[in-house]
Amino acid sequence: MAEKTWVRMVTAQTPTNIAVIKYWGKRDETLILPVNDSISVTLDPAHLCTTTTVAVSPSFDQDRMWLNGKEISLSGGRYQNCLREIRARACEVEDKEKGIKIAKKDWEKLHLHVASYNNFPTAAGLASSAAGFACLVFALAKLMNAKEDNSELSAIARQGSGSACRSLFGGFVKWIMGKAEDGSDSLAVQLVDEKHWDELVIIIAVVSSRQKETSSTTGMRDSVETSLLLQHRAKEVVPKRIKQMEEAIKNRDFGSFAQLSCADSNQFHAVCLDTCPPIFYMNGTSHRIISCVEKWNCSEGTPQPLSFVVDFLCEK
Ligand SMILES: Nc1ncnc2c1ncn2[C@@H]1O[C@H](COP(=O)(O)OP(=O)(O)OP(=O)(O)O)[C@@H](O)[C@H]1O
Ligand SMILES: C[C@@](O)(CCOP(=O)(O)OP(=O)(O)O)CC(=O)O
């Protein structure tokens, strides 16, 4: 008689995050350890988010993944690192109703199927890798009954994509760069939750949904190798800015928040220009948006200043 088969599934949803003090540059490319701390705001899950379903069954004969309906390879180091780290933390699962019992040691042999959808353009500068890897790690942790808290999970998601570690939390989140060589202290912590500053309105202007020409991974590698401005930024500028930004967020001081986030966004793009070969992530529309925000803030009687953060708004 054929052995009874079953499928255990978990679905999770994770929003993307936008950095207001940016991560740009790694000191370790395999473990994904950054050269500076960063701070981000996690978006409302109703808007830009990833939905990932992970399934395990004795009838699956290999690990497989579909992204936006298309099968992709899981053989890349980033996916393998996340899968390995979560499997190492898997615990026993028992579902008496369905008569399923998965012992801790069984997880090594069982295969996974993953289906993930982004409700926004993938690899276009809207941090799909952040929402994607955070969601994958979170869903796998639930599937495998891992007991780690979200900060511990963030250190695993970080090995998928650096910015992903910040999407494990809502509200404002700090990625502490850490000092340990094994990356164990490079993780995310929540500064304040989503209710702390709920009158803050975030507008996302997508000026292009094309895939960007230089990936963040390649771009930051080139910047680390060639930009002197990056070294200055990481050592001299960001540590002070992080403290000021934490203060601005704590006090809901929009004036300081806007000044710091605009300055940091501009410096990130300056580092890109200081890179050899130079990286251009902005286009004419992004420049015009920045000018409009600056003019609005400088005009007399402005009821409320605006802030801008530009990630990768590019177009051929
Ligand atoms: N939902 C997802 N689940 C797992 N991996 C994903 C998901 N979405 C994207 N990815 C991975 O992230 C890669 C895109 O990352 P990339 O950093 O190039 O762009 P981005 O994250 O959209 O933009 P940004 O430059 O703002 O980080 C994809 O090629 C894929 O490997
Ligand atoms: C400009 C950024 O959005 C860069 C994000 O880079 P990624 O996290 O996508 O890079 P990898 O770690 O190589 O996957 C700034 C930020 O989100 O802090």
Describe the protein:
The chain is an alpha+beta fold and 316 residues long. The protein has one domain (2-300): Ribosomal Protein S5, domain 2 (2-Layer Sandwich). The protein is 33% helix and 20% strand. It is built from 7 helices and 13 strands. The protein has helices spanning 77-88, 128-143, 150-157, 216-226, 228-250, 254-273, 284-298, and strands spanning 8-15, 17-21, 26-28, 33-34, 38-42, 49-57, 64-67, 70-72, 93-95, 100-102, 111-118, 172-176, 187-192. The strands form 4 sheets. It has a 5-stranded mixed beta sheet, covered by helices on one side. Strands 2-5-12-13 form a 4-stranded antiparallel beta sheet. A hairpin with a 4-residue loop joins strand 3 (26-28) and strand 4. Residues 19, 22-24, 32, 38, 127, 129-130, 161-163, 216-217, 311 line the site of ligand DP6.
Small-molecule binders here are: adenosine-5'-triphosphate, ligand DP6
Q: Number of domains in the coordinates?
A: 1
Count of helical segments?
7
CATH architecture grouping: 2-Layer Sandwich
Beta-strand content = 15-25%
Q: What is the CATH topology descriptor?
A: Ribosomal Protein S5, domain 2
Assign a percent range to the helix content: 25-40%
Nearest-angstrom radius of gyration? 21 Å
**What is the H-and-E element order?**
EEEEEEEEHEEEHHEEHHHH
Question: How would the global form be characterised?
Answer: elongated
Global structural class: alpha+beta
Alpha-carbon distance between the two ends: 60 Å
Q: What's the CATH C level?
A: Alpha Beta
Task: Give start-end ranges of low-pLDDT stretches.
Answer: 312-316
* Major β-sheet strand ordering: 1-6-11-7-8
The strand count comes to 13
Q: Main beta sheet, described?
A: 5 strands, mixed
The residue-averaged pLDDT reads: 91
